[in-house]
Amino acid sequence: MNFEGARVLQIVLILAPLGIWLAIYAAAQWCSFSLRLFVPWMRKLRWITYFCGVALCLAHFTNAHFFHDLDFAGALLTFSVGLSLPTGWLKKRLAGTATATVNKSERASPERS
User: Fold this and answer.
1) 23 and 83 Cβ atoms separated by less than 8 Å
2) Predicted confidence pLDDT, tens digits, the chain (113 residues)
3) Whole-structure pTM over 0.90, yes or no?
């Protein structure tokens, strides 16, 4: 891969979480499907990219001849950290809709013996 292509890939990886956040926000506003499906997938994607970034960082410090640049590892780690923004937004949005109101009759009253 040439130098310009590598830089473009790194910029895309760094900006991708914002694009994902925008897509999820647009889907939440205009489509009618459950956003709960996104949370586990985003969490899995975040951890996979985190471990790949750490593995590339560790490969940099070994005598591996296939990896001499920390830029891709940094881009992957930035992508992983960036995914925490839309994941946190989703969790906060879903927590606001999942709160249930409890009637007075349904509250646990202390039992008298």
Assistant:
1) no
2) 556 777 888 888 889 999 999 998 888 888 877 788 888 888 999 999 999 989 888 888 787 666 667 788 888 899 999 999 999 888 888 887 654 444 445 455 555 54
3) no
Domain ranges of the chain: 3-95
Q: What is the CA radius of gyration of the chain?
A: 21
Who contacts 17 (Cβ-Cβ below 8 Å, separation ≥6)?
A: 79, 82, 83, 85, 86
CB 93 within 8 A of CB 42: no
Report H helices in 1-113. 3-30, 38-61, 71-82, 84-97
